[in-house]
Amino acid sequence: MHPFLQHFPDTKKQELHELMQLVAQVAPLETPSYYDGKNKEGKQVSNPTIGFGTYMHRYADGSMGPMFRLGISSNSVGFSIYVLGLKDKTSLKERFATVIGKAKVTGYCLQFKKLSDLNASVLLEFLQFGLIESNA
After folding, report:
1. Sheet containing strand 49-58, strands side by side
2. pTM for the full predicted model
């Protein structure tokens, strides 16, 4: 298993590992990065996330910096896959909400309880969209 997985609860590691393998299927050259979820002051502001791809993100204070395009995170009820940097905040929901399976799709996130709740082929399409197609 990938070393980043040590930062996550044991109950989530196997499914996170499977998600990382799915990302490798659609974008084999993407190198994962780890984000601890802490802000500049060291305060925990989000769940730890494994990120893939990059884009230039504008932060709330107006500064710019590299940020992951696709992020995988676990939370108390399951998992989230974030797609950041989208110009059209309706595209994920319009394209995937009715076909992905038992999940909630927002303008930038897919939330689900377990991998088996999702349509596997649509999940691969979602990952590809998040990393490649939305990068235009």
Report:
1. 33-35, 49-58, 64-75, 78-83, 109-112, 104-105
2. 0.90
